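User: Before I run my own analysis I want an independent prediction to cross-check against. Here's the chain; please return only the structure tokens and, at the end, one sentence I can use as a sanity check.
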Amino acid sequence: SIAVQEGDSVKQGDVICTLESMKMQVAIKSHKNGSIKSIKIKIGGTVAKNDIVAEIE
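Assistant: Structure tokens:
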């Protein structure tokens, strides 16, 4: 699930999205304070190691 939308303000540690793999859920958190410039993933899509989930400015 995606917890933020473009334009949302986030703080370091806020959950951006939750990824599910083999019935395990992993929260992806913001690495800095800022606002969401763009979201790079889609619900139901595939995410690989080192993929950009969202741009924060």
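Sanity check: The two ends are 21 Å apart (CA to CA).
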